[in-house]
Fold:
Amino acid sequence: MSGPLTLFEKIWRDHVVAERADGQSLLWIDRHLCHEGSFHAFDKLARSGRPVRRPDLTFAIADHYVPTRDRAAGPRDPEIATMVRLLDENTARHGITQFGLNDPDQGIVHVVGPELGLTQPGITLVCGDSHTSTHGAFGALAFGIGASEVSHVLATQTLWQKRPRTLRITVDGALSQHVTAKDLILAVIARIGADGAAGHVIEYAGPAIRALSMEARMTVCNMSIEAGGRAGMIAPDDTTIEWLAGRRYAPKGAAWEAAVAAWRGLESDPEAAFDRELRLDAATIAPTVTWGISPEHAVPVTAHVPNPEDEPDTARRAALATAVDYMGLAPGTPLTEIAVDRVFIGSCTNARIEDLRAAAAVLQDRRATVPLMIVPGSSAVKRQAEAEGLDRVFTAAGAEWLDSGCSMCAATNGDMAAPGERCASTTNRNFRGRQGLGSRTHLMSPAMAAAAAVTGRITDVRQLISGAGP
Amino acid sequence: MIPFTTLSAPAVPLRLANVDTDQLLPARFLRKPRADGYHHYLFHDLRRDAEGRPREDFPLNDPRWADAPILVADRNFGGGSSREGAVYALVDHGIRVVIAPSFGDIFYSNATKNGLLPIRLPIEVIARIWATAEGDPTAPLSVDLAAQTIRLPNEAPIGFDIDPFQKECLLGGRDDIDLTLEHGARLEAFERGYGQAFPWRRPATPA
Structure:
């Protein structure tokens, strides 16, 4: 690689340990995060009898299966208790730092990694979870891997990778009031499709991206995988550096100064070429909601449920009909007439402090008319929210205020919607049955989810706030 | 892992796009030990109706395709969650080849590490395979990894692309950790130089 380089290419170049003639590169991995679902990988390592090469570069947190209620009692389900115990044992055996179930730093791995300063610009970061793309918000190359690759990283601190292609998504202009990073990324996915960025690393750029907070950038990068992207990234700037300063595992003293100097140059060169480019105007984005069973089924809240009969392509028509049928919707229904049975605010997509502030701003002096669960992204976010009094707003609105974990995003800890139930959710996937067998999910921003909780139906938060709605 | 070389066998047509890994293996089964076999959970919720009875219209429930080791689906197969269990479920069921116009990147990589060959082909070719399989469920589809071809009965071979590294691992049934450790000296040299060049990239020692 020479000449002008993209941000991604600069990070890639630094990390190549070896290259094969066929284009495969052995990449050095700076940071590895794992969770209780990583037991398959530890099993594989144990069978091979290999040690962990760099236990100082792996950090573990139980998040996917942990109880959000009565935390101190631990998991009641014996299979879940076993997974949590295996993570304890595996990390202890190999000398890996773990933030356990009752640790003040417990939380969702993609929220805690950045909070602790483990995520930094310029590093490679992997985790056995597809939403690892979140960490790209700091200008890291971060991507999800499977169990075999997790065991490879544990054994070698490297991964074989073929260099992905690059896609730059430039967002011009500014987002309108009450339009958030979640709406932006849903609009992108609707535009390019659920596999639109397959084989690509996405770099988000442009004034609308620069204007985003770190929390909002994490929401954007988090859902890169829902467009099929290998990773999503945003070049570091003052926002990034200020956010990282003083974090526990961030560099200190002279190392901090050296790091900042390096991070300042970590951006795509002006002449760098991307394999693909996409531009959109932030001002055209409205609060966005999904109606179907793929994140690409996203439309402005002012739209209607599509009519499959309008789709000329046979295969696509059948797919739309399946989605409309699964969701129990009538074609042509305005989205704002869809009643919801429950609301979930949480997940690695939208459970950071700003997300909770946005939800609280809507719920202040209002009441939820359907069950509302709020699960903070980390125990630190929970403490911060309580220090700001957000928990009192939530409980006064009738919400359940719970302990941190993946909860009803993955629905593996017992928090789930009943068959046929419709859930307004700040999560990342509206797949069939994702939030429980037969559940129906509508993805949206925290403010929109809070608005849906108040009215009991999908609601344009702009109307609720301006008083034009109920 | 079991090497993959050639296969000539029936193909089960799955005319579905966006078959995400949650459909391949619902999350509630991820906690199960592999030793019990993951085939019990393959397409668990798509295969059954609300009452838990097998759906007659789901191709894998059709006795004619019960043992077909080649699965042919529509675009974006295996998108979503990185769960390798989705691949375990296919492999434990006896699937050796999945053909689709596009795959989730993580699924594709997971497949090649478990002896499951993912093949990208244009939708036009896939539509012909679907039609052939539906016309004659016993019609063999021939797959030759070394030659990088598939062949329908009475047709010329059709080429497909695969990364040479992944091809080598599949053909040899090789664990890529072994391959990596062959670069041990290089890795050690890199590690020393890297630590000196980028000292701040190591996690700081907490105060």
Q: What stands out?
A: Helices of chain B lie at 21-24, 85-93, 105-112, 123-135, 164-172, 176-181, 184-197. The longest strand of chain B covers residues 6-14.
